[in-house]
Amino acid sequence: MSTAVQSRERFSPSYRSLLKTGELARRVEVARQKLGDCALCPRNCHVDRLSDKSAVCCTGRHARVSSYFAHFGEEDCLRGTRGSGTVFFSGCNLRCVFCQNFEIGCQAEGEEVSAEELAGMMLALQERGCHNINLVTPEHVVPQILEALVIAAKDGLRLLLVYNTGAYDSLESLRLMDGVVDIYMPDFKFWDAEMARRYLRAPDYPEVARWAIKEMHRQVGPLVFDEEGVAKHGLLLRHLVMPNDICGTREIMHWAARQLGTDTYVNIMPQYHPAGKVTDAQYPEINRCLTHKEFRQAIEAAREAGLLRLDARSATKA
User: For the chain, how many structural domains are there in total?
Assistant: First the structure.
């Protein structure tokens, strides 16, 4: 792995400048109106979420939050020494049969929160000393995040924003977040449409993920660290390796190198284990943990593609 790019430049959250110009408040109004006929993610459910109706994501007018805390299990460059200020949103626009947070993602367990309450959570994480605000599964709650962000920023929020997504995002939502998000962290899950149909219930996922990740990269570029090794701006690409290579790791790595560049920071993750709906009766091919050989082959595929910046914790396990 090559040495990560570092910078001693002082970083200020992108949204602070949008707050000063009034653009952040304008984005809130645009996003709020879109809830009335929701097509904020590729599901295009067209339900009136302003009237508190919901569809796939099980989320109406207000975001649902399952938990928020200083997370020390994320990548070293996100957690630093004080943790990543993680907000776990309930509901999800994907239906991963192997979801490791099934009750939160698919059953939307959690509490509804107002914009003021969500802003309070962000400020509490800042008060605790976290390095950033890490928004987990934000695809379906972009308007609610923007509503809360205006409030929190006016009350002194200055932490960087991490957009932690499964990459099933609409271009419309990503454009609303342009200049708001500092670090995009998409997980490119599957390369093949039939695999995405079987395991995510979203055959268009590979196509959506490709252009969504390219848009994220256009907005923020490669991942940049400060002098202490904490991420400050850019794209961090995640990829969860699956048994029997059903996810198409080699294709994803070669695509990333070609389309994003060989300086793309990539975390190849080995922690898959059977969860959610995975049983021998329904999904026997993934009803086991990853083997060391399978993970080593995934790392080799990334290196073969020419990717130079692999997350150290994962690369050393190969």
Answer: 1
Residue 206 identity: P
Question: How many helices and strands (H and E) does the chain possess?
Answer: 12, 10
- Sign of CA pseudo-dihedral 103, 104, 107, 111: positive
Phi, psi dihedrals of residue 266, rounded to the nearest 5°: -125, 130
- Residues 113-168 have pLDDT tens digits of 999 999 999 999 999 999 999 999 999 999 999 999 999 999 999 999 999 999 99
Tokens describing residue 59: 């989320």
Residue 216: closest CA among 248, 250, 177, 188: 177
Closest C-alpha among 182, 212, 238, 210 to residue 9: 182
| Amino acid type, 244 | N
Residue 52 is part of a domain; what is its CATH number?
Answer: 3.20.20.70
Q: Is residue 1 part of a domain?
A: no
Which residues form the domain of 291? 14-315
Give the whole-angstrom CA distance, residue 219 versus residue 313: 27
Question: CA-CA distance, 200 to 274, in Å (whole number)?
Answer: 15
**201, 286, 213: which is closest to 252 by C-alpha?**
213
Tell me if 8 is assigned to some domain: no
Whether 112 is in a domain gets the answer yes
Between CA 186 and CA 161, with CA 81 as vertex, the angle to 5 degrees is 35
- Helix 23-34, helix 14-21: angle, nearest 10: 90
pLDDT tens for each residue of 156-178:
999 999 999 999 999 999 999 99
| Contact criterion met (CB below 8 Å) for 53 and 171 | no
